[in-house]
Amino acid sequence: MLAKMVAELGPWSWWVAGLVLLAAEIMVPGFFLVWIGLAALIVGALSLLFWDSSFWVWELQAILFALLAVATTFAGRRLTLRNSTTDEPFLNQRGASLVGRTATLHEPIREGRGRIRLDDTLWQVMGPDLPAGTQVKVVSSNGRDLTVEPVSV
């Protein structure tokens, strides 16, 4: 059935495949089918030019499509990563967003470990031994642990 459709549609079969992939992009989460659909449209454009040529066999078309799909996917990924700027650079790095903030020790730091309250969260902190109530500044973040130092007056 598929071979019959390709034979009937001729070079337009690649255009149909490309448009189906672009339409599927709407249904599927992510942003990758658009690049594969673009590769199919490019092969479709080349098919319109070379359909009657003896070298334009289906094997060459399939190989070209595969190569173009990989190339457009990498180019699209590079393009989207280069142009992806955000107003929340630490959105998924909550600990890193706290570096530079000051807080009061909620629990004393004993043997290098203590706790501070920032906003509505108690955070594990590491630093020199200090009594509760001391003002500290967050100097670094390692996952969920924060490193603090006393605020110099």
UniProtKB/TrEMBL annotation:
Protein name per UniProt: Membrane protein implicated in regulation of membrane protease activity
Residues that span the membrane, as ranges: 12-43, 55-75
GO molecular function, one term: peptidase activity
Species, as recorded: Rhizobium leguminosarum bv. trifolii WSM597
Gene Ontology cellular component annotations, sorted alphabetically: plasma membrane
Gene Ontology annotations of biological process type: proteolysis
Segment forming the signal sequence: none
Subcellular location: Membrane
Record has Repeat as a keyword: no
Domain spans labelled NfeD-like C-terminal: 97-150
Keyword Ligase listed: no
Cited InterPro entries: Membrane_assoc_protease, NA-bd_OB-fold, NfeD-like_C
Membrane topology classification: Multi-pass membrane protein
